[in-house]
Design brief:
By secondary structure, the chain is an alpha/beta fold. The protein contains 16 helices and 18 strands.
Length: 497
């Protein structure tokens, strides 16, 4: 027994030593500006904060709601915005080739700018942003601190629909291009700038027209940069520094109906279990058995970049995932934001049953939206539903789907260029690859580009995020200046590699 205890003690000591050593060597990589070399810049564009704020304010005042594009009044708003854009940024519209694009010829509301490079052997690159917005939620108008289409500018912020999603990026791109032209910048590599008009409805006309043009002309882009994530402040527990999540993939989506059948009749004489009961039971089973996931692949890459900056005890967990993997997965799954990174999410969004309050329904239907992790497919989700619910009275019916994107490289020049521009713009920031949990124009761009990156160079907090498709959307003036600097830096280093 004594030898056994001594042996167990030795094993424990060895285990502790391994854990401590692995934690000690699990240190941050050299990320600029604290160590990595910055590419010397030949251009130093200067940006006027109040001018940029004023231009974004004016852009917000055009109610470019793409879901209402069938209305003549809304079409007029798009046309007026584009007229204003041309008048506000005349250098960009005169020095660059400008194309008016749209699959629907009567709505050519997307603009593609071509900044022709001097070296055609260099593969082109595209910067993209969308200027369409979602509508204000009816009944919430009085909840806005400032009217949603006023574009109010106070001492620190610009307020209104589109301030973050995504007119800020469109205006920052125009500001950057204007100042680079003023300094005489001429790229060796051809650069494209796409300002699309229908991202919020899936890009069926404007974004699709950009892709169609490139396909017809046999243009294969090296990479694209579009929206997707931000410089995140206060999102990662245990990390005091800002985290720039440069997203290299996005989730797909799948929408299915669960249909439960039961006996109809009068509500005064209900059976022991109705179709609604059966459906509720199925939904509870899904709630109790979430789709399997975990810290692997892209999610693991992200936390490998972030975790070395955590406190010692948290670093110890991530440095020894072979031992603490289950504990980490449970902790991350308990957080709404990080949970979506680990697995396919399940969200019942619509319910319908009886046509009248005193009629028992023959069918009860739940519509469920899944955001597909790159590891999952439509078939794996259907298999999961059938196995988890395990009830022949409940059937699965397909509504709509889109596959997850491919995962772009973190080792190519595009990713490294975005990293460098981020470090040049933001102090003490951690850069990490990430996964976009919603949809972007990049899902279409992957057909004509080797890599697709999803990142806006603005700092956001948890309070800021509430404005996305919600109330009190806003962005800081400082963010707009830094975004213009970021894009100008990236235009220079990408255009003249």
């Amino acid at each position: 027994m004594k030898k056994l205890l001594m042996g167990l003690g030795a094993i424990l000591v060895a285990l502790v030593a391994i854990v401590l050593v692995r934690t000690a060597v699990y240190s941050p990589t050299a990320q600029s500006p604290a160590g990595a070399t910055q590419t010397p810049r030949s251009f130093d564009p200067q940006f006027d904060a109040q001018q940029i704020a004023g231009n974004l304010s004016r852009a917000i005042q055009f109610q470019t709601v793409s879901s209402e594009l069938q209305e003549a009044e809304t079409q007029a708003q798009f046309e007026q915005f584009l007229d204003w854009l041309a008048a506000t940024y005349p250098q960009v519209h005169s020095a660059l080739e400008v194309e008016q694009l749209g699959i629907q010829p009567e709505q050519p509301y997307t603009r593609l700018f071509t900044w022709t490079g001097s070296d055609p052997s260099l593969q082109p690159v595209m910067f993209s942003a969308h200027y369409d917005v979602v509508p204000v939620i009816p009944g919430t108008e009085d909840e806005w601190q400032h009217p949603p289409y006023n574009g109010t500018v106070d001492d620190t912020h610009i307020w209104g629909r589109g301030a973050l999603d995504d007119k800020s990026a469109a205006i920052a791109l125009m500001e950057a291009a204007t100042q680079m032209l003023a300094e005489g910048f001429q790229p060796r590599r051809t650069l494209y700038i796409a300002l699309t008009n229908d991202e919020e409805i899936g890009g069926p006309s404007g974004t699709a027209a950009v892709v169609k043009k490139f396909k017809n002309e046999n243009v294969q882009l090296a990479w694209t940069l579009d929206e997707g994530s931000f410089v995140l402040r206060g999102f990662v527990p245990g990390v005091d520094r800002d985290v720039a999540s440069i997203n290299v993939a996005e989730k797909g989506f799948l929408t299915l109906d669960l249909v439960a059948r039961g006996e109809g009749g009068h509500s005064s004489m209900p059976p022991r279990e109705t179709a609604v009961d059966t459906l509720a039971s199925a939904l509870m089973k899904l709630q109790a058995s979430p789709i399997a996931g975990g810290l692997e692949g892209l999610s693991a890459e992200m936390f490998d970049a972030i975790a070395p900056y955590m406190s010692f005890e948290k670093r110890m967990l991530f440095a020894n995932r072979w031992l603490f993997g289950g504990l980490i997965d449970r902790a991350l799954s308990a957080n709404q934001g990080t949970a979506a990174m680990l697995h396919t999410t399940v969200a019942p969004t619509m319910l319908r049953a009886s046509v009248k309050e005193n009629v028992l329904p023959i069918e009860a239907v739940a519509t469920i939206n899944f955001r597909l992790h790159p590891r999952d497919t439509e078939q794996t989700i259907v298999d999961y539903l059938n196995a988890t619910i395990d009830d022949p009275r409940v059937t699965v019916q397909f509504r709509d789907s889109r596959a997850p994107s491919r995962v772009s490289s973190t080792g190519h020049a595009g990713y490294h260029g975005i990293e460098e521009a981020t470090h040049s713009t933001h102090n003490h920031v951690i850069t990490a690859p990430g996964l976009t949990v919603a949809g972007t124009d990049s899902r279409r761009y992957q057909a004509v580009a080797d890599d697709n990156y999803r990142f806006n160079p603005m700092v956001v907090t948890r309070d800021d995020i509430k404005g996305f498709h919600g109330t009190n959307e806003r962005i800081t003036i400082d963010n707009m200046v830094k975004a213009a600097r970021f894009y100008s830096h990236l235009m220079e280093t990408t255009g003249n590699p």
